[in-house]
Amino acid sequence: MPTPAISVAMSVYNGERFLAAAIESILGQTFGDFEFLILDDGSRDGTAALIHDYAARDSRIRPIIRENRGLIVSLNQLLGEARAPIIARMDADDISRPQRFEKQHAFLSANPDYGVVGSWTEDIDEQGRPYRVLGHDHPRNHDEFMAAIETRGPLLCHPVVMYRRDLVRAVGGYHAAFRHCEDLDLWLRLAGVTRLCSLPERLLLYRHYAEQVSSRHATEQQIGAALSHLAYRERAAGRPDPTEHLTELPPIDELDALFGRPGVSREVRSYVAPGLLYSKAGLGDHGFDLLVRHLHEGGAHDGMWRTVARLVRFGDPVRAARLATTLALTTLRAA
Questions:
Q1: Which of 165, 197, 205 is nearest to 7 (CA)?
Q2: Dist CA 125 CA 205 (whole Å)
Q3: Strand order of the sheet with strand 86-89?
Q4: How many angstroms from the chain centroid is the CA of residue 321?
């Protein structure tokens, strides 16, 4: 078979609810020279049947049906099985606009020094209605991308990126230790070998709903983000990356030993704590204990009293009382 220009890489786990719309948005692209790899990662719903149904109607679809191994294993498998030199990522709950591939492929063809291109997105809810999100759009060129690393701003939206397959494989693909922020870790590693940006056009409808990974694993995602930035700084300083060969991230209290200097554990808690203040999931899991530890270490109180009220609204008066007590004690200690 002729080598396609693009390999579309989609991993699905129990994604039946939104999958048809996602698949149809790919099959409706104005740039049609692609193979469409859809990997069912051991779903227990009707995902596999839906994939087979679409594959029977469009020969560009290559279904991969197997037992559950997790997203990072799936993404690396898709990297290995892709035949095209360019890979377009796609998630099973989003919708690509028709000209997405045409515009991103044209950009990579015209800019060989760029290895990754994303795009801006339009946010929608589970019914497809507009979803209001505060924050900045993604960097439009590599200089903006590098500046966003320093300010810890948004870098790229993973399900709308298109990248050069061999570049990603050369840096080791997706690293197993960075579950739920494997994309951020990859962008920071690629920043040392290529240029990255997003097109200032909204080429993807990005869906928000309660069951998505970023909602369910807020604390782990924040900790991984902090460590990916620390590892980036180690590499930028010419030091070895202590996370490079990890299969899972160690407990926060072991990070001083991992990085070989004191203060790393405290720095990670300081990074993560502000990101948990508005997260019901983060305040409801071990992120709450991290927040309390951060305050006992002298962390800033900004927004913390409002979080007490937020915990009451979340239906957790016990944690609200504990946070209020911690704030009062640490305030007295600092006086």
A1: 165
A2: 10
A3: 61-66, 34-41, 6-12, 86-89, 162-164, 114-124, 195-207, 95-96
A4: 33
Q: pTM for the complete prediction?
A: 0.94
DSSP letter for each residue of 44-92: SSSHHHHHHHHHHH-TTEEEEEE----HHHHHHHHHHH--SSEEEE--T
Helices (H), the chain: 16-27, 47-57, 71-81, 100-110, 142-151, 165-170, 182-190, 213-216, 218-236, 255-259, 264-276, 280-284, 287-296, 304-313, 317-334
Judge whether 84 and 35 are in contact, CB under 8 Å. Answer: yes
Q: Within 10 A of 141 (CB to CB), how many other CB atoms are there?
A: 15
Report d(CA 98, CA 21) in Å as an integer.
12
Nearest to 256 by CA among 269, 246, 244: 269
Measured distance CA(187)–CA(148) in Å, rounded: 12
**What whole-number distance in Å separates Cα of residue 202 and Cα of residue 120?**
5
User: Token pair for residue 151?
Assistant: 């300010």
Q: If DSSP codes are grouped into helix, strand and coil, which group holds residue 109?
A: helix
What percent of the chain clears pLDDT 90, i.e. is strictly above it? Answer: 93
- Please report the domains of the chain, with CATH numbers, ordered by start residue: 6-214 (3.90.550.10), 217-334 (no CATH)
Here the tokens at position 189 are: 């590693």
Three-state helix/strand/coil letters over 19-56 = HHHHHHHHHCCCCCCEEEEEEEECCCCCHHHHHHHHHH
What is the distance between the alpha carbons of residues 20 and 24, in angstroms, rounded to a whole number? 6
Measured at the CA of 119, the angle between CA 118 and CA 121, to 5 degrees, comes to 130
Q: Give the span between the Cα atoms of 266 and 293, in whole angstroms.
A: 9
Going by C-alpha positions, the residue among 314, 248, 259, 247 that lies closest to residue 287 is: 314
Q: What confidence tens digit (pLDDT) does each residue in 154-207 have? A: 999 999 999 999 999 999 999 999 999 999 999 999 999 999 999 999 999 999
Measure the CA–CA gap between 280 and 113, rounded to whole angstroms: 41
Interval 263-282 mean pLDDT: 93
Cβ neighbours, 10 Å, residue 211: 10
